[in-house]
Design brief:
- The protein has 470 residues and is an alpha/beta fold.
- The protein has two domains: 94 residues, Roll (Urease, subunit C, domain 1); 323 residues, TIM Barrel, CATH 3.20.20.140.
- The chain is 32% helix and 23% strand.
- It has 14 helices and 19 strands.
- Strands 1, 2, 3, 4, 5, 16, 17, 18 and 19 form a nine-stranded mixed sheet that branches. Strands 6-9-10-11-12-13-14-15 form an eight-stranded parallel sheet. The protein has a two-stranded antiparallel ribbon with strand order 7-8.
- β2 and β3 form a beta hairpin.
- The longest helix is centred in the middle third of the chain and has 18 residues.
- The relative contact order is 0.17.
C-alpha cells in the first residue's frame, strides 16, 4: 500500500523543510518537493493521502534505555514489553532498546534467551537489546564476542549495586579490552556504589529513612568520581565509553573534559533530571517522594544541575536523551521502602513522555527543532547501530514516522497516560506540543486518539556497530 504524507514540515537533524513523504509498504521511497510534478504524480497514485498541514513530520523516536519487566528489590517493573511498548508508541517512540540482564553467577546466554523470550511476540514497536554483564569472567567475555555477531553490540556494566551487578575496576578493564577487540560499546552506570552504601547505612542508623535521603546519600561527588574512573579505564582499555543516565554537573564536567581531549566518550541524560529535583520531588511529604526514587538520583535545585544539563544537550557533551524507563507502582512496590529508603525500588516511568518533555526545550529556547530530533531519534540510531534504517526520513529508511502537533496544549496525568503505573511522576505538568499520529514501518498505530496496533507488531532489530566509534 502506498501512502503520501503531504503539506507537513519535515524535521531532520539538519533542518526543517516543507516536504511530501511517499511510503510504499514498510519503507520510505521518496521525499518530494511540494507542488512538484513528482509530488502530484505520487498523490494521484497513492492508496491513501494524509494531510499534515500544520504538523511536523519527524522520524519515530528511539529510546535507547528502557527496562521492561526488570526485577528489582523483590518486585518487578510494572510495565511488561506489551504495555511498555504500547505506551512508547503513544508518546511517539517507535523503537526501544531494552536490557537483557545477567546477574553475577548466571549464564549470559541463558539470561539473554530469557529476555528475548519476554519480548518476542509482545512488542508493539520494533526493539533491540543491550546486554548487562553483571559477572565478568572468561566465559562472559567470550559471550560478548558471540553476541556482537548476533546484533547485540553494546554491554552495560555497573559501578554500583554491590553483590548484584557491581564490577570491580579489574573486571571493568577486562570487559573494555574485549570491547576494543570486537567493536562493541561499553555502557556504564557510573556511581561509587560502595561509598554510597556507607552513607546510606549511616543515614538509616540516624533514623533518616524518608525517600529524600536516597538523593542525599547518592552524592554528586560519587557520580563524578565514578565517571572519571570509567573514563580513565576506557582510555587504558582503548574502548569507547557511554555513560548512562548522567544527572550531575560534576559528572558532565568529566565527560566534557574527556571529549575536549579527543576521547571516545559519550553520555545520555533523561527527562527526569531536566525537570525534577531533590527538594520539590524526592522531598514530597507522606512518602510521595518515593515516586521519584531513581538511580542516578535527582539532584538539588540549588546547584545548577538542570541548567548545565540543558547546556550539555546544546553543546553535544550530552549526546542524546533516553528515559531509563523502569516503572514501579506506589501500591505494593514503592511502598516496600516505606520504613527504609534503601528498599524503595529504583525507577521512574517516562517512556511515553520523552518526546513531549524534550520538545518543551524547543518551546523555551533551550534547544532547536533539529536538535530535538537529533537527540531523540537520529543520534540514538547512529549511536546504537540502527542508522539509516531508523532515525531519519529518507528513501530506503523504515517508515517510522510521527506527525507532531506543535500547538496542542494539554496536561500530563495518570488519568491520560498509557503506562502501567498507578501514578505519574509528571502529574499536572502543562505541555505545549503533542503526538498527533504514529506510523511504525508504514502502519498507522496511533491515529485519531486511538491505538490501532497489537502485540507482536514490533520486530527484533539486529544492530550494527555504533557509527560514532573511532
Amino acid at each position: 500500500m502506498t501512502i503520501l504524507i503531504k503539506n507537513g514540515t519535515v524535521i531532520s537533524a539538519t533542518g526543517a523543510d516543507p516536504a511530501d513523504v511517499l511510503i510504499d509498504g514498510e519503507t520510505i521511497v521518496a521525499v518530494l518537493q511540494p507542488g512538484s510534478e513528482l509530488a502530484a504524480s505520487a498523490e494521484a497514485g497513492a492508496a491513501r493521502v494524509i494531510d499534515a498541514a500544520g504538523l511536523y513530520v519527524i522520524p519515530g523516536g528511539i529510546d535507547g534505555h528502557t527496562h521492561m519487566e526488570l526485577p528489582f528489590g523483590g518486585t518487578v517493573a510494572s510495565d511488561d514489553f506489551e504495555s511498555g511498548t504500547r505506551a512508547a508508541a503513544w508518546g511517539g517512540t517507535t523503537t526501544i532498546i531494552d536490557f537483557a540482564v545477567q546477574p553475577a553467577g548466571e549464564s549470559v546466554r541463558e539470561c539473554l534467551d530469557l529476555w528475548m523470550g519476554k519480548a518476542e511476540g509482545n512488542c508493539a514497536i520494533d526493539y533491540g537489546m543491550h546486554q548487562i554483564i553483571g559477572g565478568v569472567d572468561d566465559q562472559s567475555l567470550k559471550d560478548m564476542d558471540a553476541l556482537v555477531d548476533e546484533g547485540i553490540t553494546s554491554f552495560k556494566l555497573f559501578m554500583a549495586y554491590p553483590g548484584v551487578f557491581l564490577s570491580d575496576d579489574g573486571q571493568i578493564l577486562r570487559a573494555m579490552q574485549q570491547a576494543a577487540g570486537n567493536g562493541a560499546l561499553i555502557m556504564m552506570h557510573a556511581e561509587n556504589g560502595l561509598a554510597i552504601d556507607v552513607l546510606a547505612e549511616q543515614a538509616v542508623e540516624r533514623g533518616e529513612t524518608a525517600p529524600i535521603n536516597h538523593g542525599l546519600v547518592r552524592r554528586a561527588e560519587f557520580e563524578s568520581e565514578a565517571t572519571h574512573r570509567a573514563i580513565q579505564l576506557a582510555k587504558v582499555g582503548a574502548a569507547p565509553l557511554y555513560i548512562v543516565h548522567l544527572s550531575a554537573s560534576e559528572a558532565l564536567e568529566q565527560v566534557a573534559m574527556a571529549r575536549n581531549n579527543g576521547a571516545n566518550v559519550f553520555a545520555e541524560t533523561c527527562p527526569q533530571y531536566l525537570y525534577f529535583n531533590v527538594e520539590d520531588h524526592l522531598g514530597k511529604p507522606d512518602f510521595e517522594g518515593a515516586a521519584y526514587v531513581c538511580s542516578t538520583p535527582l539532584r538539588t535545585k540549588h546547584e545548577h544541575h538542570q541548567e548545565d544539563l540543558w547546556k550539555g544537550l546544546r553543546t553535544n557533551d550530552l549526546s542524546l536523551v533516553a528515559t531509563d524507563h523502569c516503572p514501579f507502582c506506589m501500591k505494593d512496590q514503592k511502598e516496600l521502602g516505606r520504613d527504609d529508603f534503601r528498599a524503595i525500588p529504583n525507577g521512574i516511568g517516562g517512556v511515553e513522555h520523552r518526546m513531549d518533555m524534550i520538545y518543551q526545550g524547543v518551546t523555551t529556547g533551550e534547544i532547536s527543532l533539529p536538535r530535538w530530533v537529533e537527540l531523540c531519534s537520529t543520534t540514538p540510531a547512529r549511536m546504537f547501530g540502527l542508522y539509516p534504517q531508523k532515525g531519519t526520513i529518507q528513501p530506503g529508511s523504515d517508515a517510522d514516522i510521527v506527525l507532531y502537533d506543535p500547538k496542542r496544549e494539554w496536561t500530563i496525568s495518570v488519568d491520560n497516560h498509557h503506562m502501567n503505573i498507578d501514578m505519574s511522576a509528571y502529574e499536572g505538568i502543562d505541555v505545549t506540543g503533542h503526538v498527533h499520529s504514529v506510523m511504525s514501518r508504514g502502519r498507522m498505530i496511533i491515529e485519531n486518539d486511538a491505538y490501532h496496533g497489537s502485540p507482536g507488531d514490533g520486530k527484533y532489530l539486529r544492530r550494527g556497530l555504533s557509527q560514532y566509534l573511532i
